[in-house]
C-alpha cells in the first residue's frame, strides 16, 4: 500500500509514531507498507486512516 507510506511521510511521522497514534502494531504497519501483508484487516486500515486524518478511500491504491 504505497499510499499509506506516502500519507505517513506527508505528516512527517515514523512508523512508530503512526503505531502509537493508531493503535496498530508497528510491525503490521511495516508489513502493509512493504507489501508483505497484502490483505490488511479493514479495522487496521480504518484505525490508520483515522490517525492520519484521512478517509479510507485516500489509502487505497488506484
Q: How does this model look, in words?
A:
With 62 residues, this protein is an all-alpha fold. The protein has one domain (2-59): 434 Repressor (Amino-terminal Domain), CATH 1.10.260.40. Helix content is 68%, strand content 0%. The chain has helices at 2-11, 15-22, 26-34, 42-52, 56-59. The longest helix has 11 residues, at 42-52. The chain is globular and about 25 Å long. The chain starts with a helix and ends with a helix. The model has no long low-confidence stretch (mean pLDDT 91).
What is the secondary structure topology, with strand pairs?
Blueprint: H1 2-11, H2 15-22, H3 26-34, H4 42-52, H5 56-59
Biased composition (Basic and acidic residues): 7-20
Region (Disordered): 1-31
Keywords: DNA-binding
Summarize the structure.
The chain contains 5 helices and no strands.
Low-confidence stretches: none
Our estimate of the beta-strand percent is under 5%
**Coarse structural class:** mainly alpha
Helix content: 55-70%
Please trace the helix and strand order, writing H or E for each element: HHHHH
Main pleated-sheet profile: none
Mean pLDDT: 91
- CATH topology value: 434 Repressor (Amino-terminal Domain)
CATH architecture: Orthogonal Bundle
Shape: globular
Number of domains: 1
What's the level 1 CATH class? Mainly Alpha
The end-to-end span amounts to: 10 Å
* Number of strand segments: 0
* CATH homologous superfamily placement: lambda repressor-like DNA-binding domains
The number of helical runs is 5
Radius of gyration, in Å, reads 10 Å
Pfam family, one: HTH_3
Keywords: DNA-binding
Protein name: Helix-turn-helix transcriptional regulator
Organism: Heyndrickxia acidicola
